[in-house]
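Quarterly update from the structural biology core.
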Amino acid sequence: MFTGIIEDVGKVYRWQMRKNAGRLTLSTHLPLGEMELGSSIAVNGACLTVVDKAKGRFAVDVSPETLERTSLKKLRRGHLVNLERPLRLSDRLGGHLVTGHVDGVGVIREIDKRGKFTFLSFQVPASIYPLLVPKGSVAVDGISLTVNECEKQRFSVAIIPYTLRHTNLLGRRVGDKVNIESDIIGKYVLRLLQSGRLGKGAAFEDF
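Predicted structure, tokenized:
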């Protein structure tokens, strides 16, 4: 489990594709001594497992399922990636609950600089759009953000200068693909609605 508060912006050191899977090696300033082999880490919002590490670098294996559902296959040497280690139970929850299980890939459609703020608009798959609500939470490349507006399979967010400087959004351009994870609470509500268990007369003990 993660919070969407980015700890470091790493850089792709090596990206080795092996048939339908791959191994991604990343440079980082995170304390590698605290990262055990087998531990989880969010890379652009995708929960992956640390399988190797060296001075200033660590490697993760990327499964065929992850390649299919995320934008990680678009990474190249030198690309910047958002990194976050898992949430500890003693930590403050500064963002929102992020599982690291990406729902799909969105596309940046507009970048609008307004004074100190940068507004980004994303187009998302039809399957994700019903889970987005104004003022609700969303993770974009692992960054916990608040939805400003949403309509016609698009939503927008306002980025403060600090977030822009300390994430990979600083180098993003129109047309870039990003990983989208909707709020887990919204997923459960949608599932209950689809099952008909939140119809008229439903009582709390029914669940």
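The mean pLDDT is 91.
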